[in-house]
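Still learning folds. Look over my entry:

…
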Amino acid sequence: MNRQDPQVDLSNCDREPIHQLGHIQAFGALIAVNADWFVGQRSANLEDMLGIEEQVEVGARLSQVFADKAFERLRSAVAALVDPDQVERLFGLDLMGKGQLFDCALHSTGAYTIIELEPHVEGDVSRQIGLLRPIMARLEKIDDTGRLLQEAARQLRASLDIDRVMVYRFHEDLSGEVVAEAKRDDLEAFLTLRYPKSDIPAQARELYKRNRFRIISDVNATPVPIEPGQTTEGDPVDLSMSTLRSVSPIHIEYLQNMGVGASLSISIIIEGKLWGLFACHHYSAKILPYSQRTSAELFSELFSMMLERALYRERDELREAGRQVHNRLMRDIAAGTSLSDSLPTITPVIQQVIPHDGASVFVEDIYDSSGSAPNEEEFRAVVPSLNSAATSKILATDALATLVPKAERFTDRAVGAMVIPVSRTPRDYLVLWRKGLTQTVLWAGNPEKPVEYGPNGARLTPRKSFEAWQESVEGKAAPWTQGELQVAEGLRVTLLEIILRLTDEAVQERAKAQAQQELLIAELNHRVRNILNLIRGLISQSKREASSIEEFSDIVGGRIASLAAAHDNITKGNWSAAPLRDLVETEAHAYLTDSQERLNLTGPEALIAPEAYTVMALVIHEMITNSAKYGSLADNSGQLDIKVTKNADGSLQLDWKESGGPPVKPPTRRGFGSTIIERSVPFELGGEAKVEYKLAGLEASFRIPSRFIEWTGVTGAASKSSKEEVMASNGLDRLPETVLLVEDSMIIALDTEDCLHELGVNKVFVESSVAGALDLLSKQTPELAILDYNLGKESSERVAEKLVEMGVPFWLATGYGEMADRLEEIGASGLLTKPYGKDELVGILGKLGSE
């Protein structure tokens, strides 16, 4: 608004207390009587209305003026008045006994009773009351509050046959807004207009709570004075509950500037408070019969109850939406994603229950924002002030700069703030921002329409009132409602729970990682010492066998190479059991490069535990070396047969037989190699070893106890039998040949892989990242997949999408039960809740077999 425009103070627009205006409107009459039923006051047009030729003297009894029957009905109505704000109505009353009917309204004020009279419209009462039932039935079917208000305005306009009906709502700051409107098509719209609180003064608001109805039938009519101007006690009569009382001349001027000829205001009362008004405008004079106004007043009372029920339903829906936000956050953020990384995901969810224009997250000294929000430098400038607030209380303000002056820097983007603390020290925050009201609310009418100026200035028009409102709210945002604050408090508790959980998990993970690291260091130290001791022993013993430096070097080099190869095999699987076949083939490769058919290895495939693998590596190395020097591998004609057998107790039997080579003679002296062959397995493993030097070729047998052996299958018919035994023992009809396991925890991955192997799955592909899994799926098509949903800072949803595309069934593994409601959305066959083990994997394989 141009500050040089004439200004008008409307805070006391009636110029005198609103209940003391000593005039009434011209279409009615008023009588004030004391408790003794003498005439006390009357309007100047009373005689004209009643057809009395001579003026009634003050002090005359009503019984001398009104017919006996009418007088008795009036007396009964007055006797029914028990509440100060109660109004009794009489319709079609023949006051004078001359057949002229009147509608009467009676109420009490102090020692006086006010009787208001209006001409009666024949048959209108029943018709008006009858219209209410279909109107209310139609409104009952509407659930949405906005649509309910709009339809109520439309129905009221139709029933009153009036040019414009607006629903005017009061906000927390007592400013008003047009939230619904029904009008003639040729009229400009007032919908969404905002008005300052001064447009309807405080005393007027109080009166609207007591008297739901206010009518102006003709803004250009001359009001009629009340005679005499005072009661017999010398006080002005209280007209608070009168429907005929006149209104402030400034309000009349306001309506005249708008071109309004008649107006009607009907209060909407919710929980005993003035929620808003039905503001009705007609652009010519219009007298609504008292019966029609009574029907409209009854409509207001019924509609207020209906709206109150709808608002309660909205609050319940808001609370339910708050619970859904809690569940969504617990599912998505508690799964391991940081609050900052989750900002793009959670703000649209919060937006549904707490409308805002931007959001900021400040957690562990890291800042991130979205939408209309301050930048990092601007936010850090206000953090010290935010830290001075209570640690467990939400700060909600529609003008942050009034509390924190440094917030002035970003008022062009964010004015209002809801600051939600999500930790204690150091302080972390989720902040929701709102733009200024003048940035988000626009004038709905024609800004080019000429303004008419009255004696009180240009303020008294809708557009000028709107400008005054804009000026009054400059630098303010829409206030945060009580319902939004309740949802925000639930959100604060949710975020605290999530962050505490993540913090606890992080502490536990760090402790677990430290313990694991200490264990690995201790294990590494132990293994290194064992290896050093073993090599020292090898060197010491080998010196006794060698006759030269070159021979010594060859002997030691071969034995160390054998140990190295063995370690390569067992460390490839993260220090897990390794195949015996690989050990034999690695040692024999140096001597049988071009003649692999001279080695015949038969029997079931067995995995040997790491602690036994290095022992067998030295034994096999010595056996192969001796065969290459003195036995069947010493020339080009010999044959080496190695047979592996699974004994009844699960132990491994290895039978060694050489043939076709040079004649064999027992050694004349026992060297270190012979000691390794004959004593390592019994001494180190508690097994058996037997060596026979036969002329046709060396024969030996070794038994390795079952605790060092894992049987993975057998060749030929034996393999089928073993697999069927495993499946039968676990109640499985079918096993997948290949399984993809996506898991970022090494321990869980190893345990799951071992369980799947034990159950008979031949190949398990283990990946710890989305990229690794997708790369493998580009080359392999597993029959089944198990996906850990949370992989560090990423989820496995992209892997899930690829598996769905390939038609591969998969199960989701997670530590949070909240994922159960997303299985169908993601396409998973089921949920594995951590921790899980062999029994749960059997359940998955069983379901796979039944599909």
Summary: The chain has five domains: 23-119, 124-313, 319-506, 546-713, 730-850.
